[in-house]
Design goal:
Layout: H1 2-21, H2 26-36, H3 38-44, E1 55-57, E2 64-66
Helix pairs in contact: 1-2, 1-3, 2-3
């Protein structure tokens, strides 16, 4: 029985680490990994879906800005569109 809880928490921790590395909500992915196990790991490895209105970090000051911004609103650095 203890092995079951260990494996369950291990899935949650691994899903949380993967999500954190991709900039996703690590607590939510910990819960998902804990309850749905390997299926959450498969989904966590998928690339993020690009949506309008997503945010990015400014390469100069590292503040969170809109991904489609032409200049950073904090440091006024001109951004190169991807």
């Amino acid at each position: 029985m203890h092995a079951f809880w260990f494996v369950t928490l291990a899935f949650g921790v691994v899903a949380s680490i993967i999500a954190f590395g991709k900039g996703r909500n690590s607590l939510g992915w910990f819960v998902a990994g804990t309850f749905i196990g390997p299926f959450a790991l498969i989904v966590a490895f998928l690339p993020p879906i690009e949506r309008e209105g997503m945010f990015a970090r400014c390469p100069s000051c590292r503040e969170v800005i809109r991904a489609d911004a032409g200049t950073c609103r904090y440091c006024h650095t001109a951004l190169i569109p991807a």
